[in-house]
Design goal:
By secondary structure, the chain is α+β, with helices and mostly antiparallel strands. It has 17 helices and 20 strands.
């Protein structure tokens, strides 16, 4: 198949476009984005696949939005022995026109034209190969699928050497086997159709047999349960009679225990009352004894507190006298301290005045030194300001001088030396210079520039240096200019003067830095203006006479300070003594007050206790209270003895065991009664169920289900045998086909490696499966799975796989290779190598490249180029 011409009219945004394609070779169709390159591929598919009246979404989308017209597509195509012109108009006034040019002229229209094109393409074109030989922009890195291409399969058969072994009927046989297999199995191998029906029928028959057998088993279970429950009901009746006798006996024992318990409860109440009476009388007797004891102890305590209060009063009077004396001594010490402080202040003021006089002298001397250093530094700074040379300028001068010397040496090496030897007395003229040579003397000059030497009236000699000498002379002049500029900027005459000026500058800078350090040391980080202000302040104060002795003033200050310190110590000592005396007085006064308060309280408590004791004795005398205690104690002991006796009798009857026996008997009777009712009700229900089961005919249903299962099993075996046979046949044919496909792989792999080695190198290898898909790539011994390759490598391998398929198929089976804006992930080096492959394949087939970046394909030397314009 070949595409000769394609015409688009009113297609999407394209008003009219016509392109003629060469019969073979690479054609690069380029244009800007959205100019309609990819639309050409889409239009060709719509022309070949869709009818002119189609309402598919793909057809609707190509209608132009700016005009109410129909989209038109025309193509001239060769396919096998046919060459035809095919035209369609969609949307508005749809039409289809076909003109067959070869092998004989035909004309068709409408659906007849569409069907005729479909028939010609089906006869001559492998549509799977036509679809596979495209590299679309959106899927340029996807793995290519070539296994379904019949044309490639035939080519690989020939390449594998199996053409003579094939009869041509193998695909038909495989299709018939697949058709028969589909009667029994789905594509994934699950049963379907007759085989699925037979399996389900057998499963249903098995389930019915199981259900009927379960129904028969249910009847047998009900009969067995009825017999067992009848025996159990008789046993339960006997057990209920024995349990009733046991419950009666236990109830009698429990009633006797209840009566004895009631008697003991009454005895306990009497004993509790007697005990309470005895306790009350004993408590009253004990309280009477306590009151007597308390009365005696409080009388003794009041006497003792009276003695303690008298002693406290005497101690308080003594402490008060001591406090008065300590306060008087503290007042005297305070007066002595004030006098000592006044004397010390007077001495301190005198010493401070002496210190200010010394500070004034010291500051005056310090400022004089500072002023001298400032003057010297200003002189150094003034001299430094006259030196224009800097470190940078010195480096420039040195570099320029070195460049002058270097170029001068080079110039001397390449320049000619002209020497004149005078045979007689002569005079040489060089510009403004005149040189007189007596006979026999010589004179020479270096000719590094165009030089004229004239012997007046005799000869003029011109010496012109070579180009290299002129170049060096130019460099030499530039170096001299640069040196002169640097010397002028530094205000020096030559390099020696510059170095001398630099040495002087460095010396002055060192002196300046030394003076700055001296000033910093003299000022001691103090501001000089602050020092001057301080000196002025000191000088403004009244001056102290010079006859004041500083040593005597300091001695008087030390003596006054010592006296003040001693007076302070004495004052502090007296203050502490006075504080201690006051504290002791406070403590003694507090103690005396506390003793007096306690004495008053104890006297009040003694009166209260004496009154309460007299009141109790007036009500019950002590002797009568003692007799009542003895009588109540005897009555309580007797009642307690009666309670103990009844408790022993009750314990002998084991009330817990009797209560437990009665509870067990009652619970057993209730349990047996409930079980008896349950068994009776269950027997009645089972009897009713057996009556119903007798009318259902369950045995007959089981026999019918077993017969139906035998029929289903026979059908299952019959259909299953056919299904397994076709399954085995399909597996054998599939295995044979896979083995055949594996023989296809090697020719395809060899062609792919042949095309890929110029791109990836001589070590390039690929592994291809039976579906002709690339599994991995090996370069320089490194194997990488296809999915792990970069986008560029995938894109390149996809194009190479399609080119390999195109190279293998027969000439009559070839289809155009369409590449839509691919190789966008490819680096420049690989682009050049891929271009060589395009050149090789373009000689045998038709390769159409659509791109917005035509520079990618500049390396395809044989390519024809078509540029699309808006």
């Amino acid at each position: 198949m070949k595409l000769h011409r394609l015409v688009l009219k009113n297609y999407r945004g394209i008003d009219h476009r016509e392109i003629d394609f060469p019969d073979h070779g690479v054609v690069v169709v380029s244009g800007a984005n959205e100019i309609g390159k990819s639309s050409m591929v889409e239009a060709l598919d719509l022309l070949l696949d869709s009818k002119d009246r189609s309402t598919r979404k793909e057809v609707k989308q190509v209608k132009p939005t700016h005009a109410d017209v129909g989209s038109e597509i025309t193509a001239e195509i060769s396919a096998g022995a046919y060459r035809f012109i095919y035209h369609k108009r969609f949307h508005k006034r749809p039409e289809t026109q076909l003109t067959v040019l070869e092998p004989r002229r035909e004309q068709h229209s409408g659906d007849e034209a569409h069907d005729r094109v479909q028939a010609m393409l089906a006869e001559t074109v492998d549509t799977e190969l036509w679809r596979a030989q495209r590299v679309l922009q959106a899927a340029s890195t996807d793995a290519v699928q070539l296994s379904g291409c019949g044309a490639l399969t035939r080519a690989l058969d020939v390449a594998a050497g199996d053409a003579a072994a094939l009869s041509g009927t193998e695909p038909l046989l495989v299709e018939r086997i697949d058709s028969e297999y589909a009667r029994y199995f789905t594509p994934t191998g699950r049963p379907t159709g007759e085989w699925s029906t037979a399996i389900k029928a057998l499963e249903a028959a098995d389930q019915e047999v199981e259900r009927c057998a379960a129904a028969i088993a249910e009847v047998d279970d009900r009969v067995q349960r009825h017999a067992a429950l009848t025996v159990e009901l008789a046993e339960l009746t006997e057990q209920r009679q024995a349990c009733a006798t046991r419950q009666t006996t236990a109830q009698a024992a429990a009633d006797a225990i209840a009566r004895l318990t009631e008697q003991m409860r009454e005895a306990e109440l009497i004993a509790a009352a007697a005990t309470a009476t005895s306790t009350a009388s004993s408590a009253a007797h004990t309280e009477r004894a306590r009151l007597r004891t308390e009365n005696d102890s409080r009388t003794a305590a009041v006497a003792a507190l009276e003695d303690e209060a008298r002693e406290a009063s005497e101690a308080q009077a003594m402490a008060r006298d001591v406090t008065v004396e300590a306060d008087a001594a503290l007042e005297s010490a305070d007066q002595a301290l004030v006098a000592a402080q006044q004397r010390a202040e007077t001495a301190r003021r005198l010493v401070d005045d002496l210190g200010r006089r010394d500070e004034t002298v010291r500051l005056a001397a310090k400022l004089a030194k500072i002023d001298a250093a400032l003057g010297e530094r200003d002189e150094v700074a003034t001299e430094l300001s006259t030196i224009a040379l800097t470190d940078d300028l010195l480096r420039q001068i040195e570099h320029a001088a070195a460049a002058v010397d270097r170029t001068e040496s080079q110039l001397a090496l390449v320049s000619a030396t002209v020497e004149f030897v005078a045979a007689g007395d002569i005079e040489l003229v060089l510009g403004d210079q005149r040189v007189t040579l007596p006979a026999g003397q010589s004179w020479s000059t270096i000719a590094n520039t165009a030089t004229e030497v004239e012997i007046a009236g005799i000869v003029t000699a011109r010496v012109t240096p070579g180009s290299s000498a002129r170049d060096i002379q130019a460099h030499y002049a530039a170096a001299q200019e640069k040196l002169a500029a640097a010397l002028a900027a530094a205000q020096v005459g030559d390099l020696a003067a510059a170095r001398q000026a630099d040495a002087r500058r460095r010396e002055l800078q060192g002196t300046r830095d030394q003076l700055t350090a001296t000033l910093a040391g003299l000022s001691d980080d103090d501001d000089i203006d602050v020092l001057r202000s301080r000196l002025a302040e000191l000088e403004s104060q009244p001056a102290l006479s010079d006859d004041v002795d500083a040593a005597a003033a300091r001695a008087q200050l030390l003596e006054a300070v010592a006296v003040r310190a001693q007076a302070g110590v004495d004052c502090e000592t007296h203050r502490k003594v006075a504080a201690l005396a006051m504290k002791k007085l406070t403590e003694i006064s507090t103690q005396a007050t506390r003793v007096q308060d306690k004495l008053v309280t104890q006297r009040a408590d003694l009166v209260a206790v004496a009154d309460r004791l007299a009141e109790r004795r007036a009500t019950v005398p002590d002797e009568k209270l003692a007799a009542a205690v003895d009588a109540d104690t005897a009555a309580a002991d007797a009642a307690t003895s009666r309670v103990v006796e009844l408790a022993e009798r009750l314990a002998a009857m084991a009330p817990e065991a009797v209560a437990a026996e009665l509870a067990e008997a009652v619970e057993a009777a209730a349990t047996l009664g409930q079980r008896h009712s349950d068994v009776t009700r269950t027997l009645h229900d089972i009897a009713a169920q057996l009556t119903v089961f007798g009318t259902e005919g369950r045995k007959g249903k089981l026999d019918a289900a077993e017969i139906e299962r035998e029929h289903a099993c026979g059908e299952h075996d019959r259909v299953g045998g056919r299904a397994r046979a076709v399954q085995l046949l399909r597996e054998v044919m599939t295995r044979h086909r896979d083995i055949t496909k594996l023989r296809y792989v090697e020719p395809f792999r060899a062609e792919l490696q042949r095309l890929g080695r110029p791109v990836f190198g001589a070590s390039f290898e690929v592994e291809v499966n039976s579906d002709l898909c690339i599994l991995n790539r090996t370069v320089d011994g490194c194997t990488v799975p296809y999915e792990s390759l970069s986008g560029g490598a995938k894109e390149q391998l996809g194009i190479l796989a399609r080119l390999a398929g195109a190279a293998l198929v027969a000439k009559e089976d070839a289809v155009p290779i369409l590449i839509d804006d691919a190789l966008g992930f490819t680096d420049p080096d690989r682009l050049v190598k891929m271009a060589e492959v395009f050149d090789t394949l373009g000689e045998h087939g038709q390769v159409i490249v659509l791109t917005c970046t035509p520079a990618r394909y500049d390396g395809v030397t044989s390519a024809q180029r078509i540029e699309l314009c808006a």
